[in-house]
């Protein structure tokens, strides 16, 4: 197995086409196909399946590619530092479901560490992308929630992707609403109270299974629902439509503004905020520091 074979494999996976990859790599398609076939025979796995739509990565191929991408990244760093003699910044990246407190924790980390030594990245995104980003090494840590409903399904997904999940803290369920919402003065909100207002939830794209939802009670049959792609739009709909979303109750006024309120929902259901990382991969110094900041939200 060579670095060239790894580079070819990653290019095919990225472009989802043997023909396009061959053109990008300036090699003939038969030569590229022969290289991949030789690699598959050496590893005794099938990396790509071929069908009428083109190239599809197999489950074994996905696993192989996660390691191949890491090897390519490490090789690039070695070449930059020792071959090209360029000094590169160290990198730290986090992915999370749409949690303003996880973004705020990231901001606190960057302010504390400074940006001279590190290149930082943060991805507030869909559940499946959080999992994918950690699996492929794009992010060191992924922040998401589990509860009694989704835990088994998510744990299987983590296991299949060679990830491990570790809990951070538990919290109750809150309705997050605009202060102008007629329910804002209530001490506790019931589902009967909420039935006349639109429930706002984050779109999960192709991976729209109930257990991938970012909000609890994803199987509940709401009379009015609106799917959104980003947190800013959700906040606008809370004001414009008196919409609500179900959340952890941790409010970050510095990021969301002070025009919103989290009111406890009348339920015994709990949610657990936790994080995922690659199995057997030790956390970096910044990873540990970021988690310690996240844990400080336990008592908020």
Note down, in words, how this protein is organized.
By secondary structure, the protein is an alpha/beta fold. Helices cover 41% and strands 22% of the residues. It has helices at residues 3-15, 18-25, 29-43, 59-83, 100-113, 127-135, 151-160, 191-194, 231-240, 253-256, 285-295, and strands at 48-51, 54-57, 90-96, 118-124, 141-146, 163-171, 174-178, 199-202, 225-228, 245-247, 260-264, 271-278. Strands 4-3-5-12-6 form a 5-stranded mixed beta sheet, with helices on both faces. Helix 1 (3-15) packs across helix 2, helix 1 crosses helix 4 (59-83) and helix 5 packs across helix 11 (285-295). The longest helix has 25 residues, at 59-83. The termini are far apart. The model has no long low-confidence stretch (mean pLDDT 90).
The H/E string reads: HHHEEHEHEHEHEEHEEHEHEEH
Fraction of residues in β-strands: 15-25%
Strand arrangement across the biggest beta sheet:
4-3-5-12-6
Range of helix content: 40-55%
Let me know the number of strands: 12
Poorly predicted regions are none
Largest sheet: 5 strands, mixed
The global form is globular
Rg: 22 Å
- Give the helix tally: 11
Structural class given helices, strands, pairing?
alpha/beta
Q: Gap between N and C termini, in Å? A: 51 Å
Tell me, rounded to a whole number, the average pLDDT.
90
How do the strands and helices of this protein lay out in sequence?
Elements: H1 3-15, H2 18-25, H3 29-43, E1 48-51, E2 54-57, H4 59-83, E3 90-96, H5 100-113, E4 118-124, H6 127-135, E5 141-146, H7 151-160, E6 163-171, E7 174-178, H8 191-194, E8 199-202, E9 225-228, H9 231-240, E10 245-247, H10 253-256, E11 260-264, E12 271-278, H11 285-295
Parallel strand pairs: 3-4, 3-5, 8-9
Antiparallel strand pairs: 1-2, 5-12, 6-12, 7-10, 7-11
Helix pairs in contact: 1-2, 1-4, 5-11
